[in-house]
Design goal:
The protein is of the alpha/beta class. 35% of the residues lie in helices and 24% in strands.
Length: 333
């Protein structure tokens, strides 16, 4: 068994945003081609702590560099007040020859960076050649830090940043710590959500919201909304938008905004396209003028597996990680 720690993962992923975006792009294409196996995620919830959860995401990603395994990720929002990371994760990869577990990788950074790479792809497809006025971040945690990192790599012309958080001091700490990711950008700390939504035509939601709380009326016409936390937008906001998802069967679950829209309307006609179809050219964005374009990726486990495989292969090449012998039973023959 190969054990790869957080610091080792960080070292192997540092400065490789373009490669990570390419890995995520390829995984989405394979999924759209039907070359993945992706059971529904398993949600472990606790009866007296509705905000806390642990999620299991198993999957198989086919192709020239196939991989199988599972991400096990927790979200405990109360950790933040205690100075701990909200999310923690581990990714287990299995041999496709024997089924044996062969690598255990600390997965919080893998999870955050594949989410941000997915967001960057969504922005690429929905913005097209349009130059955004800037980027607004709703929520100032780890995910939006990584979104800022990947959008800066994908859209280096961005020169303006607006942030909003229910805790203004946290928002100010965020910009003090991470504004270097967008060098020279003009920074605006918004005091209301509507002010933040009105600031720019590219918005990223990455919050811990459990139920919808906002529409998009304050947004400029044609705003691209990266709805990463999935439970921010009201049903009318979803129904009034041009909606792109990673997989309708996955995102219309677990009381996401899109799940609530499906329950209210009795169908999924409000879903206009998948990111894989857009990438492969089998669908093209064609929203009505002025409608917001909302990208709501559930977060497919095959993205984690693609990035975890990359980390495992890099660790083997560089001799990084800790090899544990005797983890599995000895051969019987």
């Amino acid at each position: 068994m190969l054990i790869i720690k957080h610091g080792e993962v960080a070292g192997m992923l540092a400065g490789r945003e373009k490669e990570i975006i390419d890995l995520v792009d390829e995984a989405y294409r394979r999924h759209d081609e039907g070359r993945t196996v992706l059971p529904h995620s398993v949600f472990l919830r606790f009866p007296d702590r509705p905000r806390d959860r642990i999620i299991g995401l198993p999957g198989y990603l086919g192709g020239d560099a196939e991989v199988a395994g599972m991400k096990w990720i927790s979200s405990f929002p109360g950790n933040v007040a205690a100075g701990l990371q909200r999310a923690s994760a581990a990714v287990l990869l299995n041999s496709l020859e024997t089924g044996h577990p062969e690598a255990l990788i600390e997965g919080s950074l893998i999870s955050a960076r594949r989410t941000a790479a997915s967001a960057a792809l969504g922005a690429r497809m929905l913005l097209g050649d349009r130059r955004p006025s800037g980027i607004t971040l709703i929520g100032t945690g780890v995910i939006n830090r990584e979104v800022l990192r990947f959008l800066a790599a994908e859209r280096p012309e961005l020169d303006s940043l607006a942030v909003y958080d229910t805790d203004m001091e946290r928002a100010k700490r965020f910009t003090a710590d991470h504004a270097r990711l967008l060098p020279g950008a003009k920074i605006r700390h918004c005091t209301t959500l509507d002010e933040a939504l009105a600031a720019h035509d590219l918005v990223s939601f990455a919050t811990t919201a459990a139920t919808p709380y906002t529409g998009l009326d304050a947004c400029p016409p044609g705003t691209v909304v990266l709805h990463l936390s999935l439970r921010d937008l009201t049903v009318p906001a979803v129904l009034g938008a041009y909606n792109i998802v990673d997989d309708p069967d996955h995102v219309c679950r677990e009381q996401t905004s899109l799940h609530l829209a499906e329950q209210q309307t009795g169908g999924r006609e409000f879903v206009d396209a998948s990111i894989g179809a857009l990438l492969r050219g089998t669908a093209r964005p064609a929203p009505e003028a002025g409608r917001p374009l909302v990208y709501s990726p559930f977060g497919l486990g095959v993205l984690d597996l693609a990035l975890a495989r990359f980390v495992r292969d890099e660790a083997r090449r560089c001799g990084t990680g800790t090899r544990i012998d005797g983890f599995l039973p000895a051969p019987t023959l």
